[in-house]
Design goal:
- This is Metallo-beta-lactamase domain-containing protein.
- The chain is of the alpha/beta class.
- The chain has one domain (3-118, 129-243): Ribonuclease Z/Hydroxyacylglutathione hydrolase-like (Metallo-beta-lactamase, Chain A, 4-Layer Sandwich), CATH 3.60.15.
- The protein contains seven helices and 14 strands.
- The longest helix is centred in the last third of the chain and has 12 residues, at 201-212.
């Protein structure tokens, strides 16, 4: 059962994995939804992909889960709330992509690791529980994550599963797009989207195959509903043009 956080829904989707699903409209027009994900690591520390506001209910739930030690910015555009999380959890390390760090320079936010600037095989301390793959060839410079214990892949803009039903579940809105019914991994539109945002096709083929090699069943996207099963199948379909 989801708990409401103002207009957000908080849910434990698997053991030690929580989602914070909130309404969000791109350009105040497209209801794509927003989502943060928190994972309790095997040592008890908490890893957070921070993509939604740090409201009181979110802080309360994170406090229940454990000490936040990792604050993650998953791509070049999911960076708005990183500073808020760092202020609340000053002992946590902030890891993001280089493009996001450049956008946060005026805030003076200190980063402890940067995909795209650090050496390609850099490790940040959570790899015993969560693997990561930086998509250097994707326009938004996304990072995909894999939590092996729950067979869950987490990502920001690499894969959408719209409409954002859960993210709008506390608002009274359906969360449906105004112009078309859905944008999910099995649609032609999603394949076109994934292909068009690949600015380096060879790098994309490499990284798409890396993620395809992970043993995941679930996908937690930042935009749209969680894919609870057959996540690998959804990924292979969404990125079919890179795999053929």
């Amino acid at each position: 059962m989801a708990n409401s956080s103002a207009k957000c829904a908080i849910r434990e989707v698997a053991k030690d994995v929580w989602t914070f699903s909130c309404p969000f409209s791109r350009f105040n027009l497209f209801p794509v939804g927003g989502r943060s994900t928190a994972i309790k690591l095997s040592n008890g520390d908490v890893w957070v992909l921070a993509s939604t506001p740090l409201d009181e209910a979110t802080k309360a739930k994170l406090g229940e889960i454990g000490p936040v030690k990792w604050i993650i910015g998953a791509d070049a555009v999911h960076h708005l709330f990183l500073g808020d999380y760092k202020k609340q959890y000053p002992d946590a390390k902030v890891i993001a992509v280089d493009e996001a760090a450049k956008k946060k320079e005026k805030e003076g936010l200190k980063f402890d690791g940067l995909w795209g600037a650090d050496p390609p095989n850099s490790k940040y301390g959570f790899e015993d529980d969560i693997k990561h793959c930086y998509f250097s060839g994707f326009k938004n410079k996304d990072v995909a994550f894999f939590h092996a214990a729950s067979k869950t892949m987490i990502e920001a803009d690499l894969l959408f599963n719209l409409p954002a039903t859960e993210q709008y579940s506390m608002t009274g809105s359906s969360g449906k797009f105004p112009f078309f019914a859905k944008l999910d991994p099995y649609t032609w539109a999603h394949k076109k989207f994934a292909w068009s945002l690949g600015v380096d096709k060879e790098a994309m083929k490499r990284d798409v195959k890396t993620v395809a090699g992970w043993d995941f069943e679930r996908i937690i996207p930042c935009h749209g509903d969680v894919i609870e099963k057959d996540g690998k199948k959804a990924w292979m379909e969404a990125y079919k043009w890179y795999l053929d």
